[in-house]
Design a protein that fits this description.
This protein has 10 helices and 10 strands. By secondary structure, the protein is an alpha/beta fold. The chain has 3 domains: 66 residues, no CATH class; 60 residues, no CATH class; 172 residues, Rossmann fold. Helix 5 runs parallel beside helix 10.
């Protein structure tokens, strides 16, 4: 491994360590969601300094050098911190580091100790995936790294004295050529669908929806790392349910009542029509503040017991604390399904509770 590759590898390890150390903080903030790319996310980190020696200024006396007096302060004392007019010096800088979604999922799994998911369904085919990870001295011309090859050829010609700035012709020879190398990993080609359901009645405010948005990002990050093909569907409901796109899911707010069974009915029909459980791994995540209309809890329990739970890998209910919600529905679920292994309930009091909620949801390995 070349020196530059060693330095880059070390830098990536430092970055991963910082992300892992501050993962709970990152999971409670939504700023990462605005920095998403197609397959990576930018994370703001305090500037990372590589350890090095620093030489102090020339000292002619004081404590530790020559004689000192009782009460002398140790170290350089040129001024008092926090006093005086505004200065011109730089403050703390943030460094934005790109982390791939696979790396982020790896950090998430290690920090939360999430088990690998064991997919079900008949389409659990294992395929080979090639990922370019380094540089080699040999390889096919189609993988030749043009920029690095050009630099090596240019350095060789300059050192040999054959480079003419007036006629800047750089001709690589065999020793100059570098090629991209790859690593083969085996991944299951299982299909998965994630069905998100959200209570958009008047008691669910913007703060509650922001919690749902952040938690859904981390759920997506983990499940997309576990499956080759992931589809997402979004259902909103108050007294009635409807299928919507992602933007509408996070920005709709209604003022009507709440009938949770309408969302479960729509979810059941969609799974039956488009995602048969013998071919798809089905994950359902429902977020609400716990309010429900009248005797609708009975209908919800029946739909879960007879229709949804037998067909899904995992059904997760996240109860987002709201000053207007009763919080009763989570109690009904725990009382009605005390021993169900694929039904998980979690109370999400605020953004700081997202970390523990995701661990509860995904820690089963289903």
């Amino acid at each position: 491994m070349a020196r530059i590759e060693q330095d880059h590898f070390r830098f990536r390890q430092i970055v991963k360590g910082r992300v892992r150390r501050d993962l709970r903080k990152f999971m409670s903030k939504g700023e990462m969601l605005g920095r998403q790319g197609s397959d990576r996310v930018s994370i703001p980190l305090p500037q990372i300094d590589i350890p090095r020696f620093r030489y102090g200024g020339k000292q002619t006396g004081g404590v530790g050098i020559g004689e000192g007096n009782l009460g002398d302060a140790i170290g350089k004392q040129d001024g008092q911190a926090g006093t005086g007019p505004a200065g011109e010096g730089p403050g703390e800088h943030l460094l934005e580091v790109d982390v791939t979604m696979d790396e982020l999922a790896e950090i998430l799994g290690e920090e939360l100790q999430l088990p690998r998911i064991e997919p079900r369904g008949k389409e659990n085919i294992v395929s080979d995936k090639e990922r370019y990870t380094g540089i080699r001295r040999v390889g096919p011309e189609s993988l030749r790294h043009f920029k690095r090859t050009y630099k090596r050829a240019l350095k060789r010609q300059i050192s040999a004295g054959s480079y003419n700035p007036d006629r800047p012709l750089v001709i690589p020879v065999k020793e100059d050529k570098l090629y991209r190398s790859w690593k083969v990993t085996r991944r299951p080609e299982s299909n998965a669908v994630i069905v998100y359901m959200l209570d958009v009645s008047g008691s669910m405010g913007d703060e509650q929806k922001e919690i749902v948005r952040i938690e859904a990002f981390w759920i997506d990050t983990w499940l997309r790392n576990q499956y080759q093909n992931v589809e997402c569907r979004y259902i909103v409901h108050d007294a009635a349910a409807r299928l919507v796109d992602q933007h509408t899911f996070y920005h709709t707010r209604e003022s009507g009542g709440t009938k949770i069974s309408s969302a479960y009915e729509l979810c059941k029909k969609m799974v039956e029509d488009h995602f048969p459980p013998d071919e798809w791994n089905v994950y359902c995540f429902h977020f609400s503040d716990g309010d429900n209309w009248g005797d609708d809890n009975t209908s919800c329990m029946r739909l879960l017991r007879e229709q949804l739970l037998p067909k899904v890998n995992l059904f997760c209910y996240g109860q987002v604390t709201s000053p207007y919600g009763s919080g009763q529905f989570a109690k009904e679920l725990r009382k009605g399904f005390p021993e169900k292994t694929n039904l998980i309930t979690s109370i999400i009091a605020d953004k700081d509770a997202i970390y523990d909620s995701i661990k509860e949801f995904l820690g089963t390995g289903r």
